[in-house]
Amino acid sequence: MAIEAWLMDESNEDPRLPHRRNPNKSVSLDQLAEFGVLYWKLNPTIYENDEELAKIREDRGYNYMDLLDLCPEKVENYEQKLKNFYTEHIHQDEEIRYCLEGSGYFDVRDKDDRWIRILIKAGDLIILPAGIYHRFTLDPSNYVKLMRLFKGEPVWTAYNRPQEDNPARKEYIKGLTEKFGVPLATH
Question: Contact at 8 Å (CB) between 115 and 88?
Fold first, then answer.
């Protein structure tokens, strides 16, 4: 089954809840791709010897990898870490995450500045382009094991919104504008 994504409601309830609109408004993989979000479904039980994962890593130049268990029992200052991850931000580089166990949510902004919520579960590999506004949180299970991939040495720097003058943000907006031939409002 492909990844599941939807437009979020405007509720201020616990961010770990699904926040679906009523009625639900699904977002397709093709729509996510319009914003530069890429997706693969892999077999997480064979990640150490997965030829498809190896090919993705080679093709895209991901030569660094680490694993992160994100749960209250394994992360010091867990609630503060989650709060930091949930603060809207961009990165100078792609954000590549492969869910090996558990589940969580990546939220990205669409061209109208609405949040799209993306549920990731075991086997989902997602790539967010540099410069896209996004955030991350867990769901009520409070557990996810992620593989983090990078090109070269990992850079963990998050640049909190607003970042309209950030070179990565400008390049992202330029790419969207060129792709669709319509200027997008910066958001």
Answer: no
Please report, for the domain that includes residue 30, its CATH number: 2.60.120.10
d(CA 78, CA 138): 11
Question: What's the domain range around 107?
Answer: 4-13+24-172
**Per-residue pLDDT tens for 80-133?**
999 999 999 999 999 999 999 999 999 999 989 999 999 999 999 999 999 999
In a domain, 186, yes or no: no
How far, in Å, are 45, 53, 175, 181 from residue 117 at the CA level? 25, 24, 22, 26
> Domain for residue 154, yes or no?
yes
| Count of Cβ atoms closer than 10 Å to residue 121 Cβ | 17
Strand partners, 40: 125
Q: For 132, phi and psi rounded to 5 degrees?
A: -85, 135
Other C-beta atoms closer than 10 Å to the C-beta of 107 total: 19
Annotated binding residues, as ranges?
Answer: 89, 91, 95, 134
Residue 80 and residue 71: Cα distance in Å, rounded?
12
Binding residues for Ni(2+): 89, 91, 95, 134
Whether 132 contacts 90, CB under 8 Å: yes
Instruction: Quote the pTM value.
Output: 0.93
Which positions make up the binding site for Fe(2+)?
89, 91, 95, 134
